[in-house]
Every structure is written in structure tokens, then in C-alpha cells.
Write a structure and sequence with these properties.
With 164 residues, the chain is α+β, with helices and mostly antiparallel strands. It has 3 helices and 9 strands.
């Protein structure tokens, strides 16, 4: 894929293989999307889906077609995202001995609004498959009116910490 892999300070925790990064993303339930709105930082948790087309990978999400998030996304600025899964407390005798086991993916890219009915159905299906992989339903006209966007992922990095 045409995605730059970001560098982590802790190389021992880096997940750099595309297949592993996609596997972590597939297990995540919520993605925090970060952007700028009227010059101020703005982050919002979103349901999401992953869509691959050729050499590109997209993070897909929906929302109201109006409002703060929609306005920020329609401004055409780059966005950042983060998601994590498998978070488990590993207790210790002292606070400094405690840690968390986890897997995460962070990245950035450029937002595109989804306008055509065909692509809108593709994006909604990608979102449904994130949470219900066997979903084979149909979309109603009202479903297709939601605000829909995709982030063409340009950079990402995965991270994993397991204490075992």
C-alpha cells in the first residue's frame, strides 16, 4: 500500500507490518478523529470502517451532514486518528510497576466527502462490516442521506505492549 509507516521511540513496541496494522484496526470498536475547527483542536470518537481500494486504504465514517464535525471535515484539512484495543491492566505492587497491555494504531490522512450513491453504499457497508462482518443487508434512501466521509490514510503506525 502507499502508506508511510511512522516511527516510534519504542522500537520494541512498533507494529510495522501492514497486515498486522489492519488486523489491529479490525479489532477496534471506536476511532478518535482529530481535526481543526475554526482554528481550535477538535477530537471526536466515531464508529468507522476500513476500505481498501488498490494501493489505498481508507478509514470511513458517518455523521450528521451539518454541525461542527461536518464543517471541519468539509474545510479540506488533514486529520489525525487513533484507535486501540485489548487494553488490560497489569497490576503491580507499586504504582510504577503497573502497566497496560494494549494494541493501537495512529495515523493521518486527507478527508474526502462521499457524494455518489454507489460509493455511499460502499462506505456504509465498510462501516457495518467493522461491527457485523457477516452483514448482508440493504440500504434505504434515508440511510444514504447521512454525512459520509473517508480518510485516505497517508501515514500510520501500530503499537503493541504485552507484558507476558
Amino acid at each position: 500500500m502507499n502508506i508511510k509507516v511512522g516511527q516510534l521511540r519504542r522500537k520494541d513496541r512498533a507494529v510495522t507490518e501492514e497486515k498486522e496494522i489492519l488486523s489491529i484496526m479490525a479489532r477496534c470498536q471506536v476511532c478518535t478523529l482529530s481535526m481543526c475547527s475554526a482554528g481550535e483542536p477538535y477530537g471526536v470518537p466515531v464508529n468507522f470502517g476500513i476500505m481498501q481500494k488498490g494501493e489505498d486504504c481508507f478509514l470511513c465514517f458517518h455523521g450528521a451532514p451539518v454541525g461542527k464535525k461536518a464543517e471541519a471535515l468539509l474545510s479540506g484539512t488533514a486529520v489525525a486518528f487513533s484507535m486501540y484495543t485489548a487494553e488490560t491492566l497489569v497490576p503491580g505492587q507499586k504504582a510504577s510497576d503497573c502497566t497496560m497491555d494494549f494494541e493501537s494504531v495512529c495515523g493521518s490522512g486527507v478527508v474526502e466527502e462521499i457524494r455518489t450513491e454507489e460509493e455511499r453504499a460502499e462506505v456504509l457497508t465498510a462501516i457495518m462490516h467493522q461491527y457485523w462482518p457477516d452483514w448482508r443487508g440493504e440500504w434505504s434512501t434515508s440511510d444514504l442521506k447521512a454525512g459520509l466521509w473517508k480518510v485516505r490514510i497517508q501515514q500510520w503506525c501500530g503499537k503493541r505492549h504485552t507484558s507476558a
